[in-house]
Structures are given as structure tokens and as C-alpha cells.
Amino acid sequence: MKSDSQMKSDGQMSVRVRFAPSPTGFLHVGGGRTGLYNYLFARGNDGTFILRSDDTDAARSTDEFRVDILESLRWLGLDWDEGIEVGGPIETYRQSERLSRYQDVVAGLVADGKAYYSFATPEQLDQFRKETMAAGQAPSYDGRFEPTAEEAAARIAAGESATVRFAVPRPGQTTFDDVVRDTVTFDHVQVDDFVILRSNGTPTYHLASTVDDVDFGITHVIRGEDLLSSTPKHILLTEAMGAERATYVHLSLLMGPDGKKLSKRHGHTAIKAYRDEGYLADAMVNYLALLGWSPGDDNTVISLADMIERFDLSTVSKNPAIFDTGKLQWMNGVYIREMSADAFVAAVRPLVEGDLGRGLDDAELATLAEIAPLVQERAKLLTEAPAQVRFLFGDIEYDETSWDKTMTKDGAAEAVAGAAERLAVVETWSVEAVEETLRTMLVDLELSARKGLQPLRVAISGSSVSPPLFESITALGRDRTVARLNTAKVKMA
RNA sequence: GCCCCCAUCGUCCAGCGGCCUAGGACUCCGCCCUUUCAAGGCGGCAACGGGGAUUCGAAUUCCCCUGGGGGCACCA
What we know:
RNA-binding; 12 strands; three-stranded antiparallel β-sheet; 47% helix; mainly alpha; elongated; three-stranded parallel β-sheet
């Protein structure tokens, strides 16, 4: 099955991994992490990262989800070498387009006696499961209600519909060495004779996924722990096809802050929701990588290149990690501060324009660039930026609490009036000149920095919280600064 | 009910028989810096789930218990 092209020059089988989401939902953070681990492993081992669409469930798959998954992956920067939209040696990477291949495999399995037509009714199966469970046994269906092969063939020939089930060999057991979980064994009495082909002729997940892993030459199946107990089915199928089993790697699942399975009620689970909230892809990737893996030393902020170099599947943690946005937020702040001012302006500009409801002209863009470094230091999320720079581009509203807290204090009126007067006549408008002017004023008026400067902040920005004052005033410009000071002065009188 | 997996600070990780009076990061709390808010610096609180066993020695190995998670579909 494995072709020569998959062999590296040193004779080692080259790594081929796949990320195979099904378009029945948005790409969520757990999926993102699984994709990332596949990506890191492939990149670090000179391997091939494949994106496949496990869309055998036509009823639940939608184009909206298909698009979301691709966009989310691209946003994260997890580019794939083969698969959806980029193509490769396989004709198609969509399972919905490989139906005949699955049907052929199933036909072969039936011919070999490794699978059989099943006519058991849902009611029969239901009752069987109830009874075996009540009897303290595993509710695994073993084909006990099925007719003989000859009879089955006759009924099929007569046009009756049936599912096809894989005949799990019993007694028996399947053991495999999972890279993160070590040796795992399942007794076949725990494994159901699972359906591989539905009565409508479409394959189930187990069949399609296994056939594809074999056909695509997947060497390492890296996926969520929810599939751990399905692995015997996949191994049995693989070997029934005469193929060699892949190496399995089951990643623990992501939990919500309450330790329960991560779900909507914990907040956003969709990757793109984080983008929209103002998270940076780099921060997200860094955070996700550390949820279950560490580079081994004390580093927590680590570049993608370093991650690739140091990532090691065998050191991935076995225990489920809680997805906690607190640390993600901190990390996002770190990444925002690391951005170049240009990159930051580019990222934040649409947000600012959206907030203003209009575009920024060149002069305003220059102002934004000027203040950008100061905003970067104060933002944990890109989406916080608009509120911080709003006073530079639009009309201000006074925050009531801020006003009451500062403008009614002793010296506030004098400071505002004095600043208006002095700033109006500053010769060269610069941060240094503004600072010098105002500091001189503080001395002249015998005001502390707190008493003399805070009122100015409220006057020009509307709030007692803003980027640093001298820079803000400088960026605002002389005319508007003086106008705002005068407006405040009138309001205070 | 049955099977499988997991178990170190509130959270994410380090630790792979002695280097552990258990280390780092986030959070939280002090202090410093300071025109606000941040950022930064310094310091602090905080954990090996319980019980056996092995061993000269156990967070590290084994067993049991407890707790958490996953699975048992014509979903993936």
C-alpha cells in the first residue's frame, strides 16, 4: 500500500499526518489544537500535513462549516501540504466524493466474510442493548439476529435494504501502543459489530476514515481521546483490508473552567470567535500548543519555529487540560506588545474605523501610528484599541465618574484654564514642549502632578484613564487640545 | 451497567527513585516605579487526592479506593 514515494532516502517511512474535521460544526478550540499538533509534528519531522474533509454525514454537513474550518485554519497559519483546495496525489480529499471507493472496500469485506449484511431492526437492537446492559454486560451487538450468508444474499438480491456490519472476531482483543497513552488493550466483547455501510449505501465514519487513512498512506493518526475506544475498530478494519496499522496518538480533550467538557456555556468555543474578540493568531497558537505540551524548560512564550523544532509527541501530557482564557489573554497582550507599530496599526485600523463609522484620512492615520506604541502597551485585545484612541478622532463624552472624581477638586479649574492659556502659545508643538510647558505650570500654580494633570486628561479625553497625557495632547494637536480645555473650563464654571 | 483513559499550586506545565525545605508561567495579594491606566521590577499566598506495598530512600514504581474524563449510534 505504501508507495516508494513515501520513503525517504534513508529508508525511513516519511511522516504523513492528517487533520480531518467534519463540517458539522465550526472549528472549535479543541479541533484547533488537534490540527496544530498534527501540523507541528509534520513540520518537525519533514512530513506531510494533509487536510481532509470527513463529510460522510451529508445531512449535518454544511458549506458554512466547510468555509469556517478552512478560514480558521488559515487564520491560525496552519498551512497544509495536501488536501482540500490544494490538491495532491489523491483525486479528492472529500469523503463525500469517494463513495464508490468505500463501497468497493465494503463489497470486498463482505466477499471475504469479514463483514455481513445486517437486517436487524432498530427496535431489536435497542432491546438487545438494554437487556445486555441490564445483565451487566457490554452492549455489543454480535450479529445474533442475522440470517445466514446465503439467505442474506438472497434478500439483498430481492432488493431488500440492509446495513453492512463488520464482523468483529470474538473471542479476541486488540492491543496497540499509543504514543501518549502507551499500551492500550480492548477486549472484543467490548467492541460492537459496528455498521460500516448505512442502508442508504453511504459509509460510516469508521469505515471512511479508516479507508482514507490507508489509501492516503497516513503514518500517524493524531486525534482526540474521544476516539480512543474506537481505535480497535479502526485497527481491525485496517488489517481486514490487508494494510498496516498506523501509529496512534490520542490527545486528551479540552475542558471548560468547571472541569466539564468544553462547551458553549463556557464561552466561545469557535476558533474564529477568538479572532473576532481581538486575539492574535500567534498568541492563540502559542497558548494552544502549551495546553498539553511544554518545551521542557521554563519558556512559555515561544515562536512557531521553536515549537516546530522542539515539539515532541511523546512528551504530550495525558491529562485533560482546562481551556482558561485568563492566560490566553495575558499571552495575547505579550504578542500585541511584540508587534511592530506598523503591524499593529494595520490590525487595528479597521476596528477603529468600524468604531468611528467612517474611514481615517492620512493625517489621522499618522496620528494613530504616533500613539500606537502607547496603545499596544495597554491592550490585551485588539478590540480594546478603538476605545483608547476614540478621543483623537471623534467628539468626546465626559465619563461622569471621571469628571466628578477630578474636576471638582481644588486646583482643577486653575489647571485647565492655565493649560489652555499656556498650550495656546507653545512655540513648537512637540511632546517635549508640551511636557515642559505643563510642568512649569505645575510649579507656578503649586499643584502636584496628580492634581494638575488629571483634570487635563479628563478635559481632553473625557476619562481619567487614557494613554499618557503629554503624548495624547501632542497627538490631539494644539487647536483641538485648547478647544477641549476651554469647553471643560466653561462646563466647570 | 460495562470498557478504556487520567490524577503535582485555583489554572497550564516542569519533575521520570536521592539534586524537592517540589520549580516556572497565568491569576490573586503586597511593595517599588509613576500624570491615569498599563507595562516593568521585587516579594508573597498556593499543590504531590486517600490507603497500602516495593525500596536504605518515593511526587516519581506496583496495587486498591476515591475523584474526573471518554466510549458503548445507520454522529463524527
